[in-house]
Amino acid sequence: MVNYGDLRFSTLEKIPAVCVKCVCCGCDNSCHHPHQLAEGLANVASDSSPQKMAKRQLFLMSSSALHGYEYLQHAEQDLTRFLQSNKVKQVVFVPYALTDQQAYTRRVATVLERWGFGCVGLDATADPVQAVQEAQAIYIGGGNTFLLLRTLYEKQLVTVIRERVLEHGVPYVGSSAGTNVATRSIQTTNDMPIVYPPSFDALGLVPFNINPHYLEPEEGSKHRGETRDQRIQQFHELNDAPVLGLREGASLLVEGNRATLVGTFSARLFRKDADAPTEHEPGTDFSYLL
Question: Which of 63, 64, 175, 176 is catalytic?
């Protein structure tokens, strides 16, 4: 069995085996509300007061790489300013979205150290929970969102990261998958579900969804598969949360209850029942989404 806090999951089926303490009703019996499991986790994830949210400091990138730039170079100015303004000298990096975690940490650390910041990866720590509790800043990198979220649950880091960011104001940096898990859920990721996380519910640092690497339909394309816009429309057929499509080169800066689009590219906002998505240039104030 694999333990995810109060939940136990079969390593074979990767589905709820026994709900030790039911998140639906609080009972100690076998979970008799399996269809409400994710809803119960979502309620836990969204239980954050306005006072807690006022402390959050987030830098959410669409991607670490951008055509024409070296790794992370496109975000150097904004990200450096974000870390310096929060008096960060060392970053704790979470490499769980890729399988070669050591190589991933080395790649990120090489860049951050060149910018003047220390970097330690959770792959090199004996106690990831303690490392997060002592972190000056938390940086979760991109890769596969499903693998990332499952590992965060396995290592019981979901709650501790949320508490550190929302209650203690520890700066959070996310890129791609790391941006996905910063939102209410991973339902608008582009990744293939190569593993089963216990829930799609994520850290809940913001109350909406983000689609990193957003690409609008290419005019004249002969591709007949679903476009990104169509997939987000399908999400809205069953969900109400706004979806912010972040193009590569765009980032969302959240300072307390203020959210601003930064970077060099625009973003597209999708809202349920809206006539059409809306385009927004860098500098746009998205505070109304918080």
Answer: 176
**Single-letter amino acid, residue 28:** D
Nearest to 187 by CA among 282, 284, 101, 270: 270
Across the range 30-46, mean pLDDT stands at 42
Mean pLDDT of 245-263: 97
Predicted pLDDT of residue 53: 74
Sheet containing 2-4, strands listed edge to edge, beginning at the edge strand earlier in sequence? 2-4, 7-9, 16-19
Catalytic position from the list 123, 213, 266, 280: 213
> What are the tokens at 61?
């990138």
Measured distance CA(122)–CA(134) in Å, rounded: 12
Give the number of other CB atoms < 10 A from CB of residue 274.
11
Q: Return phi, psi of residue 278, to 5°.
A: -120, 145
**Is 275 a catalytic site residue?**
no
What is the DSSP secondary-structure string of 79-125? HHHHHHHTT--EEEEE-TTSS-HHHHHHHHHHHHHHHT-EEEEGGG-
Percent of the chain at pLDDT exceeding 70: 81
pLDDT of residue 42: 45
User: For the chain, first and last CA: distance in Å?
Assistant: 37
Q: What is the pLDDT of residue 220?
A: 74
What pLDDT score was predicted for residue 136? 98
Q: Which two tokens stand for residue 226?
A: 């679903």
So what's the pLDDT on residue 48?
A: 55
33 is catalytic: no
Amino acid sitting at position 38: A
Asked if 188 and 209 touch (Cβ cutoff 8 Å), the reply is yes
Catalytic option among 62, 64, 175, 191: 191
285 given a catalytic annotation: no
